[in-house]
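Progress narrative, work stream C.
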Amino acid sequence: MKSQSLPVNILALLDSIINEAVSKISEFTTKPTAFSRHRVIDVSKLIMLIINMQSESIQKELFKNISLSGCRITASAFVQAKAKLKPDIFRYIFDQLNMNLTSLKLYNDEYRLFAIDGSDFNQVWNPKSENIVHSEGTNRKPYCDSS
């Protein structure tokens, strides 16, 4: 995959990396025949569900993320499907995502920061930052913005 520059549609990149991993899914499963049959939820949707999960119970997470899966599945079915995946697939996705985002500016020339859950992230105060925001006409202190 080719390195991209900002603005990057990181979710589109993530989707393409997941699709690439799914194309060679046998490398990332506990059994070579895993995910070879048609299931209620396919492996790419399963991976997206796992990535999108937060701290709720499995059943609540599945209900919350029904738009990702397109269907209702039980917690038991989810756990059984998830058990067929090796953790290596998530490492592969993580590594591929980072390798394809080389042109992004690093925080302190070392860290990549993302707020992919819909939240905003304000950098810690750094008087030497290039991202200082001054709120004009207010008594607010300046702050470092991540955008």
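Work stream C, second folded protein:
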Amino acid sequence: MGSASHLGYFSDRKGKTPNHLPKGVFFGLAGLIAFTAGAIVFGQVTGLGVVKQELGAPVSIRDLMITRNASGHVVVTDAATREDIALYAPEAGGFVSGSLRAFERMRQVSNVPFDAPYRLIKWESSAVSLSDTGTGERIFLDAFGRDNAAAFEALLGPQGGNSQ
């Protein structure tokens, strides 16, 4: 097979001026990039305009085992006492069941046993997080809305879980 010039592209371009980016657009893009880099450095150095989320200390912590049994029910068990906390039917459980599917995929990829406990934490800032002790992944449940975070927060128990 011949070269690219054999296909006729270069011969069609002979004598034509190349397509250039207009100088105004080039300098505008360069200025935007410089401004963005300057704003990032300014924010990091001075702390102005930087949003920081302070979680504080954990208020309550509970280790849970969340598993799916043969009939498709999601079973939530306290990892320390082995006491069943909740049982969700296959079509129920909403966010808890959906989260389990996501964590199961992460565990499968990481070759982590499915019966490793999860750590549910309520923070001083009232944020709720769910950590996978097997993979080290942590999800802040408030990002999915207060109702979804409340579904997990209810698993901490009436006293808010084990206070630390």
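Residues 159-164 have pLDDT under 50 and may be disordered. No further action is required on this item.
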